[in-house]
């Protein structure tokens, strides 16, 4: 799907600060050959199918928005409870509930053009063929790119694809063969060597990597003595994840400097975005923050622009990988 027309370059906000609007070349960034009008991306799983979130959120500040993951066949997900607060963060054990790609195409596809942001589809599956089938379906629906969510189990051995470089590469290779759209691979922080996985998916055809997904966590209600999630273990997200995700971004950017990265984990301010850019990310995804502040992207972009003005930064691209070592 083509990107929306470029908006005017700048305006003055209520505080008198000079704020670059989405579409300004100053805040453009790129993931390989894919140009984003803004460095922030709405993360999968936090904005629904995107089209059903558009009424409650403002997508103009974003360079892209990623729809909730979809599989070849309907997945029921886990039984409740599936979401829980854990202090500064949040845990989920939803189980990637989705209607399947055929229903998704019927229900979401016709509305994709109504949303003023490029939509990326997110593919999941229990084998490489399942991922490929979803990728083909997503392309027919008119999405702008495919994000491969490798944090789901392989039916054959029950382990996550994202934990094994060969399994991850097999999936990405199948998706790459199934579509000519740009492809990103979303990796897991629950690995020993994140750069090894990133290298495998890059060689298999991924145009960029998303670093990272949630980290494993658990919680117990001490009054009922029951797990806070029906499956006990779930994905931990929110602000505490940021140092872990930043470490992953920095390690991959150091090992694979030519591989574009979307940083993801604990982002809620413009300063968080700058940190990820300095660590080596070219774009930065906002996830859990959407639940507390649906229009968080507008504030984050303003904060990013104020930082750029204060530090005489001409373009977002100047910040990418610009961390100064001791």
How many strand elements? 18
- Gross CATH architecture: Alpha-Beta Barrel
Strand order of the largest sheet: 5-6-9-10-11-12-17-18
Give the count of structural domains. 1
Kindly report the CATH topology: TIM Barrel
| Radius of gyration, whole Å | 19 Å
So how many helices? 8
The name of the CATH superfamily reads Aldolase class I
Overall 3D shape: globular
Low-confidence stretches: 1-20
Distance between the termini: 44 Å
On the 0-100 scale, what is the average pLDDT? 90
- Would you state the CATH class? Alpha Beta
Structural class: alpha/beta
The amount of helix comes to 25-40%
SSE topology sketch:
Elements: E1 10-12, E2 18-20, E3 29-31, E4 34-36, E5 40-42, E6 64-66, E7 83-86, E8 89-92, H1 101-108, E9 119-123, H2 128-141, E10 145-149, H3 165-178, E11 183-186, H4 194-204, E12 208-211, E13 215-218, E14 220-221, E15 226-227, E16 233-238, H5 242-255, E17 261-264, H6 270-279, E18 283-286, H7 289-292, H8 296-310
Parallel strand pairs: 5-6, 5-18, 6-9, 9-10, 10-11, 11-12, 12-17, 17-18
Antiparallel strand pairs: 1-2, 3-4, 7-8, 8-16, 13-16, 14-15
